[in-house]
Design brief:
Shape: rod-shaped
Order of helices and strands: HHHHHEEHHEEHEEHEEEEHEHH
Strand content: 15-25%
Distance between the termini: 74 Å
Radius of gyration: 43 Å
Number of strands: 11
Structural class: alpha+beta
Oligomer: single chain
Bound molecules: phenylalanine
Amino acid sequence: LLAEALAKIAEADTLDLLEQHRVAFLGKKGSISALMKTLGGMSPEERSEAGARFNVLRTEVADALAARKVALESAALEAKLASETLDLSLPAPEASTGSVHPVSQVMDELAEIFADMGFAVATGPEIEDDWHNFTALNMPESHPARAMHDTFYFPDSDEQGRSMLLRTHTSPVQIRSMLKEGAPLRIIAPGRVYRSDSDATHTPMFHQIEGLVIDKGIHLGHLKWTLETFLKAFFERDDIVLRLRPSYFPFTEPSVEVDVGYSMEKGRRVVGGSGDDEGHAWMEVLGSGMVNRKVIEFGGLDPDEWQGFAFGTGVDRLAMLKYGMDDLRAFFDGDLRWMKHYGFAA
Ligand code: PHE
């Protein structure tokens, strides 16, 4: 019986089968239990001799069962671990990486183009006071141009009693730079500006880049050359044609609005050529002019000694034009599909 039991236990290859064997040998109705019961009908001598043998048998079978159980359990664990190992050869899902926003990319491009022409980057606060944003730019209180700016005002004034607002253009950086650096000066000032306005081509927050040159003997020719060089570099085309139109800004005199020629290709505006050419039209891209004498004075400089030109343009509009986008609002939606469509995200 012992040999048979040990053989069966050794052959059992599942825990279920092993349990069946345990019941068959050691269970209440098992064969070893049955053997034990025969002790009752034996003589005392027989019983003590057989009882000792049966006990050894029972112990050996129980030990064998226990040992086999441990072996089967650890084999099962091994198998489980083996089936759960990481398969490092599986390709991992691709993580999407961030990218620089088109507006930031264009601002970087502009800064680079102007750096080549010797312009430094200047900055000013987005929360501005009305003196820097308006008064010092020759827009005294009640000046009609103030009303045209759709300004966001803060309810409280600063310590000097100046109304606080979100700057409506980057032009206050002209004043801040002159007051801080003096002359000569050659700066660009890119940054956010705010106006209470919203449609397909206007968002309440947008980006401008300001340019200011203050030096001796500066004239309109310098302005024209600078803008032409900048627009050719930005649009990466030599056939950019500029049209300078007389205009009005309180802070420049004379003031010049600049148009570029463009044509429509596949429903997109493509800059290049004269707006008077067949199939072409003009589009305004920036405002500029010779810095008003009063503004130079507000900047703490003598306008008989120093002259200059200034220009300002919308960065978002330039980006739309360069990349053929048609809705300005999409710039600020953060829609990945849109970013991907225009090649700004992987
Ligand atoms: N600040 C003007 C605007 O926001 C643009 C401008 C800048 C015009 C500098 C002339 C000179 O429209």
